[in-house]
Amino acid sequence: MVAKISAGKSLFGALAYNQEKVDDGKAKVLGANLICEPADGKFNIGDVMDDFNRWIPSHFRTKNPVFHVSLNPHPDDKLTNEQLADIGREYMEKLGYGDQPYLIFKHEDIDREHIHIVSLRVKSDGTKVKDSKEHERSKAITIELEHKYNLIPSEGQNQGELWMLSPVDASKGNLKKQIASVIEPLTSMYHFQTIGEYKALLSLYNIGIEELRGEAKEKPYRGLLYSTLDKEGNKVGKPLKSSIFSKTVGLDSLEERMTESSQKIKEGKIRDQTRKIVFEALVTAKDELQFRRKLQSSNIDLVLRRNDEGRIYGATFIDHNNRCVLNGSRLGKEFSANALNEKFSNKEYIDNTQSQTIQSADVPTINSPVNLESIGNMIDSLLDIPVFDNSANPDANNRQLKKKRKKNRRYGRQM
Predict the structure, then answer these.
(1) In sequence order, what are the residues at sequence separation of 6 or more whose Cβ sits closer than 8 angstroms to the Cβ of residue 329?
(2) How far apart are CA 197 and CA 182, in angstroms?
(3) Long-range contacts at 335-343 (CB < 8 A, ≥ 24 apart)
(4) What is the number of other CB atoms lying within 10 angstroms of the CB of residue 268?
(5) How confident is the model over 272-296, as pLDDT tens digits?
(6) How much of the chain exceeds pLDDT 90, in percent?
(7) Which end of the chain is more exposed for a tag (fewer CB within 10 A), N or C?
(8) Which of 232, 247, 267 is the last residue of a domain?
(9) 262 and 232 share a domain?
(10) 290 and 246 within one domain
(11) H helical segments located in 312-410
(12) What are residue 219's DSSP bridge partners?
């Protein structure tokens, strides 16, 4: 069983994400702690918010007061609702949340049943629930529960599938609810440092985003529009203002999130972990399709942007293991758009307008020798050895390319 913990600012957003699934018949409430349970068993998000608010002190210093965790047993584990509820309660008790209000939701929207628990990181006296070495303690608790309930060990489970969010489908209607169910958890789960990286992440779920800036009644304004995209990357339906969703997906909150993400990526080893995997895949890949498949086998998605001539001008890597979104240039110049374009320029690429269900037989595999000089440069970069490049100024080349660019193809996931 694998636990995925996230901290956030929006209690309503976390509760709404789960309650919407309940309302759609794709989830149910299995248990509650210090939350009034209605006689008919039908929880109302307004009443639940009132109960939670009674436990929130008027003053506290915790920046992210909301606790949200998913507990994911192996797909072959068959557990009753009572067992899942007991596992949720025991987990929260052992992690230090036994005296906190929380709700346990069971999700049934995918084949693998799992539970989500929403609680508070701040106590009623304003102090924070102990979170030192939280992930290490959580891992020890899940191992203990695996033994107690005879569960399949978590080793070997596909980490990238633990939070399986459904791409937006315009044919199903209710685009506001579909978009909200994706963007709200994504903003709290993933680390990204620019709107462009956030845009690449959203493209995996058929969602587009536009930044708006202007002036109305002599007052400046700035905001975001979210749109549904079809398979070709075209907008479908009316764009929706970020203000109709929770504040966590608005421009101000996203900028705060980007600052936090930048600091965390800088302090930790997230970037190095992703770069190592990408490096190994790139060195051994014979073509773009094989490169993508190697990355996807390690739970990393690649989003490329191409102009009308097919030249790659943007590359973003989305690592679902550490939930980090990184432009190729952040990993090193060997992984930048220019470098990838050079490596794959003589090979057929997968047109952005094609269906995401493309099969391997549809794209020919072209065998070509590995560029030893590129490998050497990548090794030097990984070892932080300075490389002196006397070639032409790449920035000048980029400016020339931008002048030639007319319009972009789909900004989304290519398979």
Answers:
(1) 335, 336, 337
(2) 16
(3) 335/275, 335/278, 335/279, 335/282, 337/304, 337/305, 337/312, 337/313, 338/312, 338/394, 338/397, 338/398, 339/374, 340/304, 340/312, 340/315, 341/311, 341/312, 341/313, 343/282, 343/371, 343/374
(4) 13
(5) 989 999 999 999 999 999 999 999 9
(6) 49
(7) C
(8) 267
(9) yes
(10) no
(11) 328-331, 337-344, 372-382, 394-404
(12) 216
Using an 8 Å Cβ cutoff, are 198 and 206 in contact?
Answer: no
Q: List the structure tokens of 81.
A: 């609702």
Over residues 121-161, the pLDDT tens digits come to 999 999 999 999 998 899 999 999 999 999 988 765 544 44
Residue from 386, 204, 378, 203 nearest 285 by CA: 378
Q: DSSP code of 37?
A: P
Tokens of 280: 């190994």
Q: Is 25 exposed, middle or buried (0-12, 13-18, 19+ CB in 10 A)?
A: exposed
Q: Which domain holds residue 228?
A: 170-267
Count of the separate structural domains present in the chain: 3
Q: Could you tell me whether strands 102-107 and 27-33 are parallel, antiparallel, or unpaired per DSSP bridges?
A: antiparallel
Domain end marker among 199, 233, 267? 267
Same domain, residue pair 371 and 233: no
In terms of domains, do 249 and 135 share one?
Answer: no
Say how far apart CA 166 and CA 185 lie, in whole Å. Answer: 12
Asked whether residue 413 is domain-assigned, the answer is: no
300: its two tokens: 């990393």
Does residue 55 sit within a domain? Answer: yes
- In this structure, the answer to whether residues 263 and 290 fall within a common structural domain is no
